[in-house]
Write a structure and sequence with these properties.
alpha/beta; six-stranded parallel sheet; five-stranded parallel sheet
């Protein structure tokens, strides 16, 4: 009789959490808070290709306003570099680079590929690469890992491991920080998943949710924002219907909101690096596997045309007031994609400005939060440095910055000439003080 097979214990994961030396690749709105949080427990090296960004962080200044000078000075185990080769001292790599879409709304994976190649050049046996950048389901294993293998010459899940933990930060929100938001974690093997989960549990007081696979974690991220995108699209379309009916949209939403299970979404512009982008990553993958998404793309189409809709409504108001003339000048208040935040990535206020230009209307944009040089470089739109009273025939309140809320309707109207049109995209002013709200 043959002897029973001897069961051997599974090989221990090659890296212990307490031995982590972390490299954070990409130091924007997501990467910097992650680097600061990890630096309270581990040696952290933050790398970014923007030398200006590295310079300001070394001077303890964060132009995104996600980290304070006090937090940066207090992060004693955090260093910054613009040299990819410096990452060779790390054994855990956290990738937080942008994942935008191109002009055809297809995923632009160039930043993700560049980061993966850079990590591949310094990758060693036993290292772990964790991606936080939003991607479509399967992207980590189908796109990123082959780049790591090709450049490093190492074998996935034997020599190195991967994880996916989607970012959930809300730029500009000082009440809900990284540690307060439950984190989804995952890994390329059960042992890698345990490692990634334990690593994040050291910085996330709200706890973690360990997904059964990286594909599940990837899908969860794009699903979160796709759901929100569709809900906003619904209220945007309802707002268009209410306007045709001569009903104030906010009045309707407040009345409907008295029902216990009514969801409190508001109409508005849908921009930024998440909600206005992530659904395209999901639909890209869906179409790749032979499914043509209908509801998701319908929601995207509605939200993408809100800027044009606002301008059409606004120009009609100007016409009804007899203000359409050659020297017409309009002011747009706000340019960032959301209130009280300097982030102008994928801002849909740019579409409002563009559609106004299609009517040959002169436009000034004012936003005290954004960087004028960056806006001019990205959109060809340079916000004016200061406000002038009595200058404009029409004003569009596009972003609900605190500064504009404090001005109130009278303060904002003072910027216009007598009889100027005031359109409130965000519905933050009393309805009897504006000419129209979305």
């Amino acid at each position: 009789m043959s002897s029973p097979a001897v069961k051997t214990a599974p090989e221990a994961f090659p890296l212990k959490v307490e031995d982590a030396r972390i490299g954070v690749v990409g130091l924007g709105y997501v990467g910097l808070p992650v680097a600061v949080a990890f630096a309270a427990h581990y040696p952290v090296l933050g790398v970014d290709i923007n030398s200006k960004r590295i310079g300001e962080l070394k001077r303890f200044h964060d132009s995104t306003l996600e980290a304070t000078e006090e937090e940066l000075r207090g992060a004693k185990h955090l260093q910054f570099t613009g040299e990819w080769a410096d990452l060779k001292s790390c054994n855990v790599f956290v990738v937080t680079v942008p994942t935008p879409v191109d002009s055809h709304n297809h995923p632009d994976l160039a930043p993700l590929e560049a980061a993966s190649r850079a990590i591949g050049n310094v990758l060693k046996r036993g290292d772990v690469v964790v991606y936080e950048s939003t991607v479509y389901p399967g992207c980590t294993e189908e796109f990123c890992v082959p780049v790591l293998e090709q450049v490093s010459g190492l074998v996935f899940n034997r020599d190195f491991f991967a994880g996916y933990s989607p970012e959930r930060l809300n730029p500009g929100n000082k009440e809900l920080k990284l540690s307060d938001i439950k984190k989804i974690t995952s890994g390329s093997t059960p042992e890698a998943a345990d490692f990634v989960d334990a690593l994040y549990r050291t910085i996330i007081t709200a706890g973690t949710h360990k997904a059964p696979s990286m594909r599940v974690a990837e899908a969860a991220k794009v699903m979160e924002n796709t759901q929100r995108d569709l809900n906003i699209a619904l209220v945007n379309e309802l707002a268009m219907i209410c306007n045709r009916l001569g009903i104030d949209t906010l009045d309707v939403l407040e009345a409907a909101g008295t029902k216990w299970n009514f969801l409190p979404f508001r109409p508005g512009l849908v921009g930024g690096h998440c909600i206005g982008v992530d659904p395209y990553y999901l639909t890209h993958k869906a179409e790749e596997i032979g499914h043509h998404p209908e509801v998701i793309l319908a929601g995207r189409r509605i939200n993408d045309r809100v800027g044009k809709y606002v301008v059409n409504q606004f120009v009609r108001l100007l016409g009804r007031k007899g203000l359409l003339r050659d020297d017409l000048r309009v002011l747009v208040l706000g340019f960032s994609f959301k209130e009280n935040c300097p982030d102008a990535r994928n801002t849909k206020v740019a579409s409002i400005v563009g559609h106004l230009h299609e009517f040959d209307i002169a436009v000034d944009v004012y936003d005290p939060w954004v960087n004028p040089d960056e806006c001019e470089h990205e959109y060809g739109i340079r916000p004016v440095p200061a406000l002038e009273t009595g200058k404009y025939d029409g004003i569009i309140l596009a972003v609900a910055h605190d500064e504009f809320v404090k001005m109130g309707a009278q303060g904002i109207r003072a910027l216009g000439r007598p009889g100027a049109v005031l359109y409130d995209v965000k519905s933050i002013l009393p309805k009897d003080m504006v000419d129209q709200r979305l």
